[in-house]
Specification:
two-stranded parallel ribbon; 11% strand; globular
């Protein structure tokens, strides 16, 4: 979603078309693969192999791009091949050629904040198909609903992911619930997690709580849809709940995020929008 938003916003500023290369998903085994078209109403088409090769030539190869990513080979890169130089926001994206291929995560609202209206429109969810989600949406819209997301799953079981991101401490959630409950009257918490058993065992929230446990597999995206309907948010160090909070358009929403997003020394300074609270 960050990659789509950064590319789409750049294309809007340039007044040119935007297309997606999803070839990397052909062997992608985490989560559910490429889902943008299934979940949202994104207008950007897919780029063909011929389109990409015409733009990049021999540098369209994934293998070659792995080499070219290293700065010592930067002199070989075609100008059209634009690598994200670091995790921080990079203003140099606006100096990219008119026709370019963006490679990176681009995880900052700063890449698309001035085109946020269009990005929100592109990321409009399709209507709920399951009656249970429709009923939950009605409840959420009638309450001071607060989404709370606990990400475990691969953060626990995948060593590489755990080393990079780590887990939010239980104390973070306790502090976040305490912070938000002092500022919201009659809060009602909607708890989303890929490990609801662990959450039920360890969380003790003295306010009404609803555990969302039924959206599995290819239907998991419905959790993000339900999150976005809530009035306020307590997110994990996860882009899933980042987007669940960002897609809530309310200007007065409270969003609480972990101050330490990464387990390593990566900076998250540009990752969180202005106005979000860190604890």
């Amino acid at each position: 979603m960050f990659q789509y938003a950064a590319g789409r916003a750049l294309s809007l500023r340039r007044g040119v078309s935007h297309s997606l290369d999803i070839s990397a998903f052909s062997h992608y085994e985490l989560h559910n693969g490429f889902e943008l078209y299934q979940v949202f109403c994104c207008p950007s088409p897919l780029a063909s192999e011929v389109d990409i090769r015409r733009l990049l030539g021999w540098q369209s190869s994934v293998t070659m791009q792995r080499f070219l990513r290293h700065s010592i080979f930067a002199f070989l890169r075609r100008r059209a091949l634009v690598f994200e130089p670091s995790f921080r926001y990079w203003p140099g994206i606006d100096d990219a050629p008119l026709r370019c291929y963006l490679l990176g995560y681009w995880q900052s609202e700063k890449y698309f904040q001035y085109e946020s209206k269009t990005i929100r429109s592109d990321f409009s969810f399709k209507p709920f198909s399951a009656p249970q989600n429709r009923l939950l949406a009605e409840r959420i819209n009638s309450e001071e609903a607060i989404s709370l997301h606990v990400r475990r799953g691969d953060y626990v079981h995948d060593p590489k992911t755990n080393t990079t991101l780590g887990l939010c401490a239980l104390s973070y959630y306790e502090d976040a619930v305490n912070y938000i409950s002092k500022r919201v009257n009659n809060p009602s918490f909607y708890i989303f997690s890929d490990d609801p058993f662990w959450v039920r065992l360890h969380f003790d929230i003295s306010f009404p709580c609803t555990f969302i446990e039924h959206n599995h597999g290819a239907q998991s995206f419905n959790d993000m849809h339900l999150m976005s309907l809530c009035r306020h948010h307590i997110i994990a160090n996860s882009s899933f709940s980042w987007w669940g909070a960002w897609l809530n358009p309310r200007p007065n929403k409270i969003v609480i995020a972990p101050k330490k997003w990464f387990a390593n020394d990566y900076s998250s300074e540009d990752l969180l929008p202005d106005g979000w609270i860190t604890l």
